[in-house]
Write a structure and sequence with these properties.
Helix content: under 10%
Strand content: over 45%
Shape: elongated
Radius of gyration: 51 Å
């Protein structure tokens, strides 16, 4: 009995210890691990480094739990938690918590620092400042990070890259970052204000016609006076020197520019005037042109710049009584006459154009009658004697005359020749007591006919 009581007491104690009222086991909550980069992207210069933990937010994990990785060690290398930029490029840095799926990434861009003068030495004239920033190749460095210095401020002083010469001599000017690297220097020679040499970018230069063109050049020493320089173009070239260093040409042409310095040194430059399309179209004989039905005249045009050709022109006819070929030859057609507008336009520059008025006249308007009559006239207007009537054309050998008839004032036929002749044709007639005579004849041209009537007045 006593043994049973002891066992019941032990069971009671064990049961009591497992009771939910004890506050044990099932009430423990596991904390969540978080890991994130503060920025998704960071820029570095080559040879920089930083502690990755300064960019990381980490909760419920220790630093020892973090594993780092760089996908491009040639740009960013990792040592412990230190990231070091070793080459230009990009790398993705990943931070991962051990034994979990928690991780975060950040892109690191590595840029190279460049600080270098484009020239090793520079000659300037005394009394004229120069901005060395124009000769500086800078990359990955802010202007506020540059430190300038002169080896001899008695010759040249420097302020934010602007050098001021004080006397003739030679010195060096240095520039570096505040950290001391990178660094570069340039040799500065201060000379008298006398030009020694002129330099063009190339031996051959192209320029457009119809506008003043400034020739680019440098003088040695920098800032030297250009007074006294002679600019000359060879005599056979249409290119002209407008002012020192400024050229003009209204033609597509070549020429040689000779530049003579006060010290006698000569420099030569070949100039080629090139096209940017027709810039002006004019008709020197006027914008209105009369042509004859059946004739084929050639347009007389002036294209600017001179040297442009009609290949660069298009002809647009408003009324198709004419056609114009690519050489400016107008073709008219028998039976087609009247007025049309002709637009002559630049293909390259369509806004450059000329509108001409073309008047196509009837072919018969350009056939003339000459009278040569030697007669004896009476007071009452009667005349007798020999006469010669010449019918001739101003153009075109294809015009014919026929049905030539001479009438007196009463309409009586005095002479008739129905044959057809090519012009010019001369009719010889004898007059016998004729008053108020007139002639009629028919003109024909490629199937088109026209009757004409002319009064006969004795000379």
């Amino acid at each position: 009995m006593k043994a049973r009581l002891i066992l019941l007491a032990i069971f009671s104690i064990i049961a009591s210890g497992c009771s939910s009222d004890s506050g044990g086991g099932s009430d423990v909550v596991e904390k969540t691990v978080t890991i994130t980069f503060k920025n998704k992207e960071k820029t570095m210069l080559i040879n920089d480094s930083f502690d990755l933990f300064t960019e990381l937010t980490l909760e419920n994990a220790t630093r020892e739990d973090v594993v780092w990785n760089s996908d491009n060690p040639k740009a960013v290398r990792i040592d412990g938690s230190m990231a070091k930029s070793v080459g230009e490029g990009e790398a993705v840095i990943t931070a991962k918590v051990k034994n979990t799926a928690k991780q975060t990434s950040m892109k690191v861009i590595v840029r190279q620092q460049v600080l270098k003068f484009k020239l090793k030495e520079l000659a300037i004239v005394n009394g004229k400042s120069f901005d060395l920033n124009e000769l500086l190749d800078v990359k990955g460095i802010g202007s506020g990070d540059l430190v300038w210095s002169s080896a001899d401020e008695g010759i040249v002083s420097v302020n934010k890259g602007i050098i001021t010469p004080h006397r003739e001599g030679v010195t060096t000017v240095s520039v570096q970052t505040k950290s001391g690297t990178p660094k570069d220097e340039i040799k500065i020679t201060v000379k008298k204000n006398e030009i020694e040499r002129i330099i063009f970018p190339a031996k051959i230069m192209e320029m457009y016609a119809m506008s003043n063109v400034e020739i680019p050049f440098k003088v040695i020493p920098e800032g030297a006076s250009t007074e006294g320089i002679k600019w000359e173009i060879d005599n056979y070239s249409p290119i002209v020197v407008v002012s020192p260093g400024v050229l003009y040409s209204d033609q597509l042409a070549n020429g040689e520019l000779t530049v003579t310095l006060p010290n006698g040194e000569k420099t030569y430059l070949t100039i080629r005037v090139v096209s940017k399309g027709i810039l002006a179209i004019t008709a020197p004989l006027g914008n209105e042109l009369k042509v004859y039905e059946g004739n084929s005249p050639t347009l007389y045009l002036k294209l600017l710049p001179l040297g442009e050709t009609l290949d660069e022109v298009e002809f647009i006819v408003e009324n198709p009584i004419i056609t114009v070929d690519n050489q400016g030859v107008i073709t008219t057609y028998p039976g087609k006459h009247g007025i049309t507008n002709l637009t002559i336009r630049s293909r390259t520059n369509p806004n450059v154009k000329l509108i001409m008025k073309i008047d196509v006249r009837n072919f018969s308007e350009y056939v003339y009658t000459d009278l040569n009559i030697l007669v004896n006239a009476t007071p009452d207007g009667m005349y007798s004697g020999d006469g010669q009537i010449n019918i001739w054309r101003y153009f075109n050998n294809d015009i014919r005359v026929s049905d030539f008839t001479l009438y007196d004032g009463n309409g009586r036929v005095l002479y008739n020749d129905r044959a057809t002749y090519a012009l010019d044709k001369v009719y010889k007639i004898k007059f016998d007591n004729v008053r108020r005579a007139y002639i009629e004849y028919t003109l024909s041209f490629h199937g088109t006919t026209e009757k004409k009537r002319v009064s006969v007045t004795p000379s």
